[in-house]
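Work Package 4 report. The design task specified in the project plan requires that, given a folded chain encoded as structure tokens, an amino acid be chosen for each position. We show below one input record used in the internal validation round.
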């Protein structure tokens, strides 16, 4: 109980590898990541927006300091809410989840298990965001598309250089139609 004991350790920012292993110790998945100290000068806060009930709510996360903040924000957004954000508050994402992608009838054999940001470019205040083909599992419907677009737009509008967002999937606007 941290209320009665000393505070938890506050290690410096450092690289680590998170491995998921089965009972035999075989590595099923691995991801390189940073363990971040929020007080480190090499770390910066960003705002992400996730669904909570019927509203989008802001969540602040720490990321390694970068000049490509819009790219970093969308990459972070594509991972969805963190475990503590889901458990503590019930946040969800409007981007397709691994479960939605796995069960999508149009899924192809070469699909990944999650949506990836392919590119983002910013010109005259418009962020052009291109998502990977897995975004096709988004579900459809005008209300859902509006909410999905709002999630991405609000996440990006924290940056003063962005006033609006245009999204494509593999360069095509056809996939993201109601």
């Amino acid at each position: 109980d941290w209320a009665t004991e000393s505070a938890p350790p506050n290690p410096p920012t450092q690289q680590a590898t998170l491995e998921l292993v089965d009972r035999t110790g075989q590595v099923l998945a691995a991801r390189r990541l940073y363990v971040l100290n929020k007080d480190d000068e090499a770390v910066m806060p960003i705002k992400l927006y996730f669904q909570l009930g019927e509203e989008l709510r802001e969540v602040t996360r720490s990321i390694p300091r970068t000049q490509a903040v819009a790219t970093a924000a969308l990459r972070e957004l594509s991972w969805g809410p963190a475990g503590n954000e889901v458990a503590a508050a019930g946040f969800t994402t409007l981007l397709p989840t691994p479960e939605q992608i796995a069960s999508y009838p149009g899924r192809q054999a070469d699909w990944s298990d999650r949506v990836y940001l392919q590119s983002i470019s910013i010109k005259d205040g418009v962020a052009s965001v291109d998502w990977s083909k897995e975004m096709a599992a988004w579900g459809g419907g005008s209300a859902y598309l509006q909410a999905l677009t709002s999630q991405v737009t609000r996440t990006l509008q924290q940056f003063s250089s962005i006033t609006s967002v245009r999204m494509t999937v593999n360069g095509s606007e056809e996939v993201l139609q109601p």
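Residues 14-169 form one domain. Validation will be extended to a larger panel in the next phase.
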